[in-house]
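Entry type: protein chain
Record version: 2
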Amino acid sequence: MFDELPDRLRLQAQLLDQYIAESTKEELTECARLLALNVAHYHQRYGELPLEQQLNAAVIPSIDEKMARLMVLGIQEMIKALTIIKNRDDRKGLERGTLN
């Protein structure tokens, strides 16, 4: 199972890179705000997040299976957030009669 994970992580990262490249600065800013709100909600309910520890673990060239799974989930959350923002912006454009 772990053998598949690096490929999945690479593919998810490529998909996220594509989403980012196709996003405006405003969409990325809103995405960051939405994800920050989710982090704040988690912090309020469960306590401090080990952000520095996770950042250090994520840059190590040989990540373990647990960190790879966490990174895939994090990438998926950002893709979901960007999708929500882009879909909402598309709906607003339809209501105004314009699309980005």
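Comment: Residues 51-95 form one domain.
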